[in-house]
Design brief:
Order of helices and strands: HEEEEEEEEEEHHHHHHHHHH
Radius of gyration: 28 Å
Oligomer: single chain
Number of strands: 10
Strand content: 15-25%
Length: 351
């Protein structure tokens, strides 16, 4: 009877093991992915989340002085869509295994080109691409499960933080914003937007704002070679004005006005002074336009513009008043969505 019981137990164990791949069950350390865009750079961390579970973590479950996978199960990976600086040191675009060597006062963070490990059984220091030193910080709040977060996010930097138990381990990531945007523009214009005059005009406007009028002029000329558009003419006019050709700029603005749609007329009428923070000028233009065109189907755009201007001016009550009027005047879901986009953008800018 004893042999039968043992045989039955082994049979059931074998069935259980075989069934692991047949159905999906909760993992003790569930998988997670967290991402953050810094400027135009996408950063993604993929990891598994072990729990404290009443265990001693630091210099216990995770020993000091030895490589650790910075998570559970498969090694944690971190990917960058463009080159970045990590703690001031350059790291090429790509996906890396993120290992660490913890210690009481300083950690060594390791970016390895071998991403297929499970645990640290196959970690090889010769495959390190970068090592940096960071300082762990104690926290009053305890994290039961290991987590990664992005803190202090700006257009050119963020802190990727490993948090577990009462410890936070910050890793500073920085991007060369202008270089990455220029690279993104180049890739975009070589790809599906190569024949889009609006894309070339947008690239020209970015270069004009960021101090390269010669490249801006080349982009604007290419935009107009692909097709004469209101945006292309206005963009080249702005470039010429920046380069000191006021007469040429005025001629192009006149040409643009002659082909402008009502949407474009409203947008440029308040958008240009708004960009220069001439809020009262934008408000005056929009109020005059509404008074002169009381039956216009585009009044919802006028009210949306007034909401945007008042929000930028720091008058949230007035902004809400006009956003509400815009929503009431919008004719369909597409127009209401545009109003909501403006409301959300204004709210984000106010933070």
């Amino acid at each position: 009877m004893k042999s039968i019981a043992i045989g039955t137990a082994l049979f059931l164990a074998a069935l259980s093991a075989a069934g692991q791949s047949a159905i999906r069950l909760p993992e003790p350390s569930p998988a997670a992915t967290v991402g953050q865009t810094i400027g135009v750079t996408d950063v993604t961390i993929t990891y598994h989340r072990p729990a404290v579970n009443k265990r001693k973590i630091w210099n216990g479950l995770v020993p000091y002085g030895s490589p650790w996978r910075t998570g559970a199960n498969e090694n944690t990976t971190i990917s960058f869509s463009t080159p970045v600086k990590v703690e001031g040191q350059m790291l090429p675009a790509g996906t890396y295994a993120l290992y660490a060597i913890p210690a009481a006062s300083q950690w060594t963070m390791i970016f390895s080109k071998f991403t297929g490990d499970w645990g640290v059984y196959n970690y090889d220091p010769s495959e390190d691409v970068l090592r940096v030193t960071v300082t762990p910080q104690t926290s009053a709040d305890s994290e039961e499960r290991l987590t990664y977060r992005f803190d202090d996010v700006t257009n050119n930097s963020a802190i990727a933080s490993l948090r577990w138990e009462k410890l936070r381990v910050p890793i500073r990531i920085e991007v060369d914003l202008k270089a990455t945007i220029r690279s993104s523009i180049s890739d975009t214009l070589r790809g599906g937007k190569h024949w889009d005059p609006n894309a070339w005009a947008a690239a020209a406007r970015w270069e004009l704002r960021n101090g390269d009028p010669d490249t801006a002029l080349a982009y604007a000329d290419h935009s107009l070679a692909l097709g004469t558009t209101y945006g292309g003419l206005r963009t080249k006019a702005a470039v010429l004005e920046k380069k000191g050709d006021a007469k040429g700029a005025a001629e192009l603005r006149d040409r643009a006005a002659s082909i402008a749609t009502e949407e474009e007329t409203i947008g440029s009428g308040y958008g240009i002074p708004l960009g220069a923070k001439k809020y009262d000028e934008s408000i005056s233009y929009l109020n005059n336009y509404a008074a002169a065109h009381p039956s216009s189907r585009e009044l919802w755009r006028v009210y949306t513009g007034l909401g945007e201007v008042y929000a930028a001016k720091g008058d949230p009550a007035k902004a809400k008043e006009y956003f509400d009027k815009a929503m009431a005047a919008a004719h369909d879901t597409a127009e209401k969505t545009e109003v909501w986009d403006s409301i959300n953008a204004a709210a984000a800018d106010a933070k």
